[in-house]
Here is the input.
Amino acid sequence: MAFFLETLIGGLMAGMLYSLVALGFVLIYKASGVFNFAQGALVLFAALAMARFSEWLPGWTGIDSPILANIGAFVLAGLVMFAVAWIIERLVLRHLVNQEGATLLMVTLGIAYLLEGIGQGFFGNDIYKIDVGMPKEPVMVLENMFEGGILINKEDFIAALIAALLVGALTLFFQKTATGRALRAVADDHQAAQSIGIPLNRIWVIIWLVAGLVALVAGIIWGSKLGVQFSLATVALRALPVVILGGLTSVPGAIVGGLIIGVGEKLSEVYLGPYVGGGIEIWFAYMLALVFLLFRPQGLFGEKIIDRV
Amino acid sequence: MIYRENGQFKTSYAADQQIFPIAQDRWAVLAIVAFAFVGIPFLVDEYLFRAILIPFLILALAALGVNLLVGYCGQITLGAGAFMAVGAYAAYNFLIRIDGMPMLAAILLGGFVAAVVGIVFGIPSLRVRGLYLAMATLAAQFFWDWAFLRISWFTNNAPSGSVSVSNLELLGWSIDAPIEKYLFCLGLLALFALLAKNMTRSAMGRQWMAIRDMDVAAEVIGIRPMFAKLSAFAVSSFYLGVAGALWGFVHLGSWEPAAFSIDRSFQLLFMVIIGGMGSIMGSFFGAAFIVVLPIFLNQFLPWLGGLVGLHISTAGVSHAEFMIFGALIVFFLIVEPHGIARLWSTGKEKLRLWPFPH
Amino acid sequence: MREIGDVILDLRGISLSFGGVKALTDISFDVREHEVRAIIGPNGAGKSSMLNVINGVYRPQQGEVILRGDHFKRMDPYRAAKAGIARTFQSLALFKGMSVIDNIMTGRNLKMKANLFQQAVWWGMAAREELAHRAKVEEIIDFLEIQHIRKTPVGRLPYGLQKRVDLGRALAMEPQILLLDEPMAGMNVEEKQDMSRFILDVNDQFGTTIVLIEHDMGVVMDLSDRVVVLDYGRKIGDGSPDEVRTNPEVIKAYLGASH
Here is the structure.
């Protein structure tokens, strides 16, 4: 039982990270109908910026304190993500209004390649460290309930906490601020939003910036766990089934979907993996999402798709 | 005034239905094909065969397959590499498990197995489209990546996970030297390109394009989406499977699943986008472009860097490659969704009128 | 000359709703062979939905479609096409990446029997079929007077010509029943006259039964033999143009609606 719970919690923690990446997908899809395959590249790009700036800053400014260097790097990386969002809107998105979903998807594949090339060309292509001082040691909890207790990684716990906070903040942002309401209006109907004077272009920059910042947070958490390297870009591929499961247009869907996939992956790997040779995590999530798709194409929380002739 | 159709009047619908209705086009294409078969073998050295021509021929065949599905039928795929893998491993198993199995038969059977697998993974396309379908094809990619890595039956229990094929033979002709491999691939490509062209200009092709352009209207005139989509998946996967088998048998000789990874899938999709969606010719342009560009950059960028006193590393070249591919994808999708093929035909259109402006 | 025959298509008690929103409520009417039957009504009356029920794009929750005595609870587009029902669309629904010829050729699809392998090698039956059907398609092109644009991709054509190609694609099926969804919407007077002429010619020469949705009352009253009037998904009138014109409920619906 304790082992099962441990696996379960490990899955939930991993799932939280998927949720973060999935959140980036959902934000952009809601506001612009673009299925952003470049979300993983954004994570890589942001993490690279963060890692390298925190490394370079002490040299540039003479600041020794790692905390200040990290804060400075975070701000700089945020600015870089803003620039990326702005450039993408300027050069790409505004030329593709009203295009088909499949075309937009392929465009974001192009953007992903561009970001990966530029990111690595500019920031380097080694493995870099992000150290924001997250505690690494594991802790035991519930020792009085189970024999030996349950082992939890403190780092995972904090990461999950940050992710939860971020989701809360985004929900507030969408519900309570004027920009958030404008975003929701745009998501519902581009033309109607435009006709009541919501500037589409600015909204798109904002949404890509928000997605970029979410990517930055995801990149920091992931990067401080496993180091910043090219494989970060592939997290988008792991988070894809999450959005399918949760529904492309639903923020809560991204969270719940992330948790389900995280847990599903871990449980299947532990309990099913040994029989089939292991390594089934990736495709298991896809198959799960696929089977689900056949019965409920709009996902758990997505809006129903109705075709009209 | 050279490239003109003046005076070429068509007196029958058959003449109008030819693949190249303009006589100059017909002769030019015949000349190119003849040159590819007869001229190139005398002019080209071994390196060029191995590094450029053979990969180009095989990838062009694969790109044709992707184009039939994506460009003609409008069904997106991000898992083309997986179907190449299925073709390669199926052909391998036919070859080693059945005594006296001829090589060509094994390759074609590999294509058929890929077609069947393609149908299975195409089934979601009946319920979903666009993004969701992309997901289903990714599922295929990851599943087969895993299967060929972990299920040792597929690799005939090869301890290293890598399989190899040697002593290729076709009706007593041993395909060994690069030039023979080249001719073998060229022959298959020419044949399959012709078949693809015929399919796309007849009822089947029109059904695919109808589904792509307006699926509801297609249904109303009696096209069954299931049949049209699954046949596109089947034919496309067959082409990919044959290309995969050739890639393994002829180009690599021995290979691992990584040869058909998701990067390969993206590469094939890029070929079709850059070359021209919905164009047979475009598949060739795209394949040529993507095979040649990295080699060109490898030579050219360090030289260019040297001019301005910069040292450009191998990593730098590969980053430049990423950027150029990315930028081109974005560029073509925004400016010219029909790719190089459309640029080409626009150029021809201009030539037809030259030297008059209108 | 045509002569109006027996009932060929009978709709009984059709009700259709989308997630609680009622589009059609208990609608019954019939269509006789060789006649021109119009469906009119204000915007949102459910006219297009009615056509979509007839050829199986929408599936009604209640009622049945009776086609030449065969009862269909649920029609599907493929069966409808096989049974000789063709249609055109209100918003353009051509295959915009294909040429005019290919669009109309696609309408011959059900009549082509060659299999994929024969088509791939372009041999025997496949090649013969392409030729034979091409000749048939050229007849339609002549009939619709669009010879000059036969090789043009339809996406580049002006609206009025696209509507004609849409009709051509439907005619290529050699339908017995032709459903026309606002064939003249957005056309100028001259284009409307051309289109009216084509519709009458089709009805006259080939004896095709026509079910027509149209907003232009003048056109409807001139073309049709009988008219069905819908309002808010209900049938409020049915009869000859004259009967319908004097029906008080119809007048009320039209005066009440903001036109």
